[in-house]
Amino acid sequence: MVELFVGVIIEYFAKIRDTKGQGLMTDAQRQWASTQAFVMKIRPEKLARRPTSCKLRTVCFDIVNNLWFDRVVVAIIAANSVSIASTTFGENDSKIKVVGIINGIFSSIFIGEAILKIMSFGVLYFRSGWNRFDFAIVCGLVVGFVLNQFITDHLLLSSISSILGFIRIGRLFRLVRFIKPLRTPINAIVHVIPGMTNIGALVVLLFFVYAVCGMQLYGTVAIQGDMNEQANFRTIANAMTSLFRFSTGENWNGFMWSLFEEREDCETDLRYDEKSPWCVQDRDYPDCTEINGCSAGVSVFFYFYTFTLIVSYVILNMFVGVVLESFQSCQEGDILQPADLDHFVKIWAKFDPDATWYIPASDMTHLLNKLGPPLGVTHQGHKIDPCLNGISVNVKKQVHIVDVAARLAKRLAIEKQGDEFGELSDSHPLQQNLDKLTKDDKAMTLGEMYNNQLSVLIRLAHKWKRVVKERRQKQSNDEGCSRVT
Q1: C-alpha distance from residue 477 to each of 404, 465, 482 (Å)
Q2: What is the mean pLDDT of residues 283-291?
């Protein structure tokens, strides 16, 4: 039954996806759409220039950009994780001391790594999200170390040690930066948060409605069986936490039958007395009246069955659909690999060092020659591939990074798919987004710009030829006149 509900939810999300432009697409079009969506996530990066004003910064820059630097950092992270995992409860003091020294050494290495990168890149260090994450971990380690030196309360010290251990474990997330297959699930988790927020708000609303109804219907039922001081409908807090527990499937049916069972010596008409209020919390005793209401009746079946069907089987399974949809949207292109786009961004940064998203259109041939396969071309000289003639050029005669990457990816898709390649329609969301990026300030295409330049060159050549011809004719006329005289 659970799998049936999950299947229905996933099918519903598939229908939503089809209405967004992927319903009647061929396999080749789906592959090209996935690749284009992957390409449109591209972002330019500022070029980190090698500092020359300070010799120390130059040395730090060379160390950080060495190929083995990141590999050593990954090995240290793995070794630190092993040292943390080696501790168990009830260890002797000598082992705890040794592990503490090892963790201190590793922490010092990570602090030194952050210092090296800050000295190398300066402000550019904080432009990367991963660098900001590393810096936050380093700051947490430094604060924890300082607190350990000045705090003498053993209970507070143990709490700080637990927090430091959690921060050290956070270093494992840095491996995602170096292990590329982990990027897709992590990106899916990040992109699923907005969708989770919307569904979470709906779940909270349903919980609140059912909690209020439960308080009105079953708030005065006497405690019995699985209904106890923690699981009841006497306060809004207990009602919400109880419903959250029931949404996971934990003993909701037992609680339902406890509400349905008859009570002995119960009061059918329980009324509230201001002089002797009901005993809801411990602070209400002893001047209070025990709540001793009778059975809830058959309404409990409708209440719990509808709650289980709506919340447990439908709403919560919508989270599964959102996660699957986000995971699919975050999948990388089928035609391009992440390394191809990373290489493209690095080469682009050489022509756009300030990450303005644009480069001069005249630099396109140099960009293509430097890229190399599969996105670039080699041995083309100053010729432009015919597939790239449609690249938009703005009034400043510049081209946009997303447009260039999309055109290069399209050329690669045509090469791989051949006659099966299918262009996306103008109404497709991906195509509309690409057009919105490039057509707002479009003045011409790259092909038109080169044709205009070529026509100018042809006119100049004809003019030069005509001038040379006139000069030769004038020289010949002058020579004829001189002979006559």
Answers
A1: 56, 18, 9
A2: 69
What CA–CA distances, in Å, run from 340 to 180, 336, 424, 432, 439?
A: 13, 6, 22, 24, 26
Higher pLDDT, 414 or 381: 414
Query: Looking at this protein, which amino acid is placed at residue 306?
Result: T
- CB 417, CB 410: distance < 8 Å: no
Give, as one character, the DSSP assignment of residue 88.
-
Reading phi first (left if > 0) and then psi (alpha if -120 to 50, else beta), residue 319 is in alpha
Closest of 375, 367, 370, 378 to residue 337, by C-alpha: 375
pTM of the model: 0.59
The region that residue 444 occupies, defined by phi over 0 for left and psi between -120 and 50 for alpha, beta otherwise, is: beta
**Strands 442-445 and 358-360, sheet pairing:** unpaired
Q: CA-CA-CA-CA torsion for 6, 9, 13, 15, nearest 10 degrees?
A: 120
Give pLDDT, residue 357.
85
At 180-228, the pLDDT tens digits run: 677 667 766 777 777 678 788 888 899 999 999 998 888 888 888 888 8
> pLDDT tens digits, residue range 269-280?
767 666 666 676
Closest CA to 386 of 377, 374, 397: 377
Torsion sign over Cα 375, 380, 385, 389: positive
Q: What sign results for the dihedral spanned by CA atoms 71, 77, 83, 86?
A: negative
Q: 3-state DSSP call for residue 224? A: strand
